[in-house]
Amino acid sequence: MTKKIFLLVFRCFIFQLLHFNSFAQPSGFIDEVISENWTIPAGLTFDANGRMYVWEKSGRVFIVENGVKSTKPIIDISDEVLNFGDHGLNGLALDPDFLNNGYIYLMYAAKRHHVLNFGKPDYEPQEETPFQTTIGRITRYTLTTPSNFTEVDLDSRKILVGETPSTGIPILVDNHGVGSLVFGLDGTLLATIGDAALATDGVVDDTQSDWFKEAVSLGFIKPEENINAYKSQYLNSLDGKLIRIDPKTGDALPSNPFYEVANPRSPKSRVWSYGLRNPFRFSIRPNTGSTNPSEGNPGIIYMGDVGWSHREEINVATKGGLNFGWPTYEGIDYMNKAYQDPKFLPQNHQKPVVDWRGTFAQGIVDGEAFAVSSPQFKGNKFSGIASIGGIWYNYQQFPREYQNLYYHADYEGWIKAFKFDTKGSPTEVIDFVSDVHPTSFAINPKDGAIYYTNYFYPNTHEIRRLSYNPDANRRPTAIQSATPIYGKAPLTINFRASDSKDPEGTSLKYEWDFGDGNKSSDANPNHIYNSNGKVETYTATVKVTDVAGLSSSKSMSIFVDNTPPQINSTSIDKIEFFDNTKDFSISLNAQVTDAEHSQQQLSYLWSVLLYHDDHIHFVTSSYRLIGEAILNIVPCDAQTYFYKVTLTATDAEGLSSTYEKVIRPNCGVLSVPSISPELSIVPNPTEHTVDIFPLNDLTDKVLKATLYYADGLVLMEKEAFWQEIKPILDSKLIAAESGLYLLKITTDGFSKTFKVIKN
After folding, report:
1. Which residues does 205 contact at the CB level (< 8 Å), separation at least 6?
2. Chain center to CA of 75
3. Which of 118, 121, 242, 441 has its CA 20 to 30 A from that of 413?
């Protein structure tokens, strides 16, 4: 399973399994479209005068000045650029002295025909072709001073990396090619490169891939580089690396960790970090590094590394020579069993500071992993499918509490701000923007706002701005729900959008599109879906508009003539406890049926989490119905430990059901504590959060929490452990209007309802 950021049809299994609430940026912040007449905008940057440079994936670079896009590109190398899948003009950087020398640096996948034939008498520029193995390049052009840097001197082209087929960046598959170009504080040029590999679940002989054998025959890789994902561990390959070069020559720097005096242009000489999979975007933390390139300290580097099937990562390179573990390691805890070749096993690899995917996110705080929403790593739980990367914010346009934070994006649809302490540990994640698909970030030095490219096939091709203006009219937030979301036709759905909010408190206009040709202007309409004789999934969308004409929309799937898969039994049904004197192996399997879909149309996700007091550790996950997992020994002390094993079965339409099983260590005490009759919630009244007291009575119990409006309608319902319920409940309270709500807690025959006052 691979991740393709620019694919025409972006599919992700996790995205179908989970539904996470959208969120608005904190009060006073504005996220808005400023330009949308683009064709796959891959990235943007600014010069010191605040002029914007936007590059499209096809190989064209435009200027945006005073909000106006240039009528023609200042650079157009589309004849050379391979615009296919992930590949294209992905990286661009302006020289630190750009306003004097006009140097602009480009990193892209090159068309094979251009690589092999350009300059020959029979060379002819060709249209886009199906994927072919080729190379990536880093080149430098000069924009001319007399034109005010609006025209390029084509004769100035200088290839820094990839001047020949054998010296380029190997592009061997249709994804995971070149990434970003960023200048270090010391004036050196850094670039990220994907692994150009095909990940596999089992141990197979990848060297026999037709693509790989062809790449050897054409000289794009040497025979010893035909090792697929292990190229990330092989220092004499550029794939799966962060490299550092001299922008004048393309040579490596003597201060690089693996520099070879006799060969300054070798891959090994250029490597700064390795063991990466797809480090698409990265940035350097402000006020770090040295201005002297001989010291080997360009600054502290923060990278988004797109994961395979298990974890997404934020990696931090504090120095040169760090190995981030791919393909053997993924995320903080996960080990890929398919990649255990002793020749390439990482030694003392660098773990990511934050990882996420599926139902779980965590960070390393003072050397130990803590789940998001724990006291050590505050914030709401989140998921994602492709860790794009981000940018450090050190300007003063944002309020002080939002300065010196790291703003990171996942292509699933969000931007979040991460707080780090002085030791580099993440301490909090703050929800900022949802329902966007960022591909690049930059800060305009003139207005101090964050700008980013937002691309999603087929219709979203935007430049957006995230700024702070507490006096501006802001877009309303669309909040959508429906009951039920599946069933046999005729299917009556009760839709609700009256919880949507306008920050200024004005009245809202509602426009519903039920996806079957019918519409409504009611806030909370009922709609009947009829049968067309087959399983059908409709997208129901509500658009809310304030009195000033600003709008926002939300969509959800309605499954007609469809029911979720039924998990009838599993191999772990009867396992309540495990022998805690040794690592305990469990076989994973289940009997699953579906009334509308065949077995071949069902997908599966097993996950194993270790609960430790108030935080959670990710153990493993698998996308196969049949597998195994290891429950490791845990301490038998005053702290609470237990494992939760979850199976989610999903049909071809994206409708799913979930089975959960708690397995406890056998420490000689098998009794389960009873619940105190004095159970209460605190604080109450509240503005945004509630907790249960005393919490220790409920740490290892599955609860059902239902939050009601005062009129009895359900606002939220969740059955899980309190550690999982709390962030969802808090997010509902944050969005809720002031007033009275009812919270019902049920477990093991115990039930109690509390009045909750929201200030």
Report:
1. none
2. 30
3. 242
- Name the nearest CA neighbour of 754 among 734, 737, 729: 729
Look at residues 596, 595, 610 and name the one whose alpha carbon lies nearest to residue 643: 610
Handedness of CA 131, 137, 138, 140 (dihedral sign): negative
**Sequential DSSP letters for 646-660:** EEEEE-TTS-EEEEE
Token pair for residue 307? 């994961």
pLDDT digits (tens, 9 = 90+) for 41-85: 999 999 999 999 999 999 999 999 988 999 999 999 999 999 888
Rounded to whole angstroms, how far apart are CA atoms 754 and 743? 5
With H, G, I as helix, E, B as strand and everything else as coil, classify residue 55. Answer: strand
What domains lie within the chain, and their CATH numbers?
Answer: 13-468 (2.120.10.30), 481-560 (2.60.40.10), 570-666 (2.60.40), 680-758 (2.60.40)
Q: Cβ–Cβ contacts within 10 Å for residue 680, how many? A: 12
For residue 160, the Cα-to-chain-centroid distance in whole angstroms is 31
pLDDT at 617 over 80: no
Give the tokens for residue 193.
């490169």
Put simply, whether the predicted model's pTM sits higher than 0.85 gets the answer no
Predicted confidence (pLDDT) at residue 544 exceeds the cutoff of 60: yes
Residue 722 confidence (pLDDT)? 83
Quickly list DSSP for 335-385.
E-TT---GGG--SSPPPPSEEEETTEEEEEETTEEEETTBTTBBS-----S
H/E/C letters for each residue in 515-558?
CCCCEECCCCCEEEECCCCCCEEEEEEEEEECCCCCEEEEEEEE
User: Given pLDDT bands bounded at 50, 70 and 90, which one contains residue 518?
Assistant: very high
Amino acid at 513: D
Amino acid at 476: P
End-to-end CA distance of the chain: 47
Are the C-beta atoms of 743 and 706 separated by less than 8 Å? Answer: yes
Measured CA distances, 744 to 260, 358, 495 (Å): 67, 27, 23
Residue 749's CB: how many other CB atoms inside 10 A?
6
Region of 487 please: left (phi>0), alpha (psi -120 to 50) or beta. Answer: left
